[in-house]
Amino acid sequence: MNKNAIFSMKTKLRGIPPPVKAAGGSCSEAASGLEIRPGGMLVQKRTSDANHNSNPKIKVRVKYGSSHHEIALSPEATFGELKKLLAGPTGLRPQDQKLVFKDKERDSRAFLDVCGVKDGSKIVLLEDDLSIERRFLESRRTAKMETASKEIAAVRFEVDRLAKQVMNVEMEINGGKKVVEAVLLNLIELLMIELIKLDGVAADGDVKLERRMQVKRVQKYIETLDVLKLRNSGLRKAALQHKIFTGQMPTTHENQQEVQRKQLGNLGGRANPGAVIVTTKWQTF
Fold this sequence. Notes:
Blueprint: H1 3-13, H2 27-30, E1 34-36, E2 42-44, H3 48-54, E3 58-64, E4 67-73, H4 79-90, E5 97-100, E6 122-127, H5 129-174, H6 181-199, H7 205-245, H8 252-270
Parallel strand pairs: 3-6
Antiparallel strand pairs: 1-2, 3-4, 5-6
Organism: Sesamum indicum
GO molecular function: adenyl-nucleotide exchange factor activity; protein-folding chaperone binding
Domain BAG: 151-229
């Protein structure tokens, strides 16, 4: 049996019409629209037009909540590919989507045509339960961070106001001017209140770093006021000594002498010495 007979038998078994041998040409050249695969199998030749005609796109209608989305894709596509196409119009990530077709959730690896999806089929899109819970936790965390950020901003505004007063007091004391100690104590107390507020703020990430920076800032101002308080106390003692040395303020010993003089003066004003009365009887010799 020659090669042509064997080739003819193979084509009959596969349902392919036998090629017509052209004059001066071989059987393979005469086989119009056929090609030989690397394994030796003769199949119909594929062209871009043939692929386009054999694999037309279908349109499916996807319901998500109260909205509907019409998606065009190949019937041989998977449900995972459909999820990727739905990510844009719905805002849901593919891993957060659940596609239900004919009252059954479909796996992302399942093919549309195998599951019976046709042109005009209706599919329901649901959000995954874990995704809903995760999104809820993220929204709570975001709201918590926004609240913490506002609280820190309010503390920062108040600390800015107190910082100006601290600078003014520091300039006065460094210039040799005595400041009332109550002013320093009041500033320290107000800064301590802001420090307590910062301690009660629960924050993460960048907000936590901002809180830490404000805590260090408040502590620095409190330490500055403590130093100024000691320096201001030294100025008060120096002023007292200056008055004593210049005679503007008597010493403690001088004060005691002055008090004694006043007491003797008062006694002299009230008592009249008059005549001396002798009560002792002396013996006459």
